[in-house]
Known about the structure:
By secondary structure, this protein is mainly α. The chain is built from three helices and no strands. It has helices at residues 14-26, 28-44, 49-59. Helix 1 (14-26) packs across helix 2 (28-44). The chain is globular and about 30 Å long. The protein starts with 13 loop residues before the first helix and ends with a helix. The mean pLDDT is 77.
Amino acid sequence: MGADAKRWSVRVTGEVRHWLRDLRDHDPASYESVRVAVDKLAEVQGWDARSWTRCVEAASVI
């Protein structure tokens, strides 16, 4: 990402936040995969949702 590029801010609900904490505590490897995916979502900004879905499905991060 270039110096002028902006990242999106990804906001999550309390329910998702709770799920992420539980995942972190019980399955750290899966938590890390989800964390990286969310970071990537913030980075790619307006990337086509279908392309994003294919990447997530291919990575089996769902």
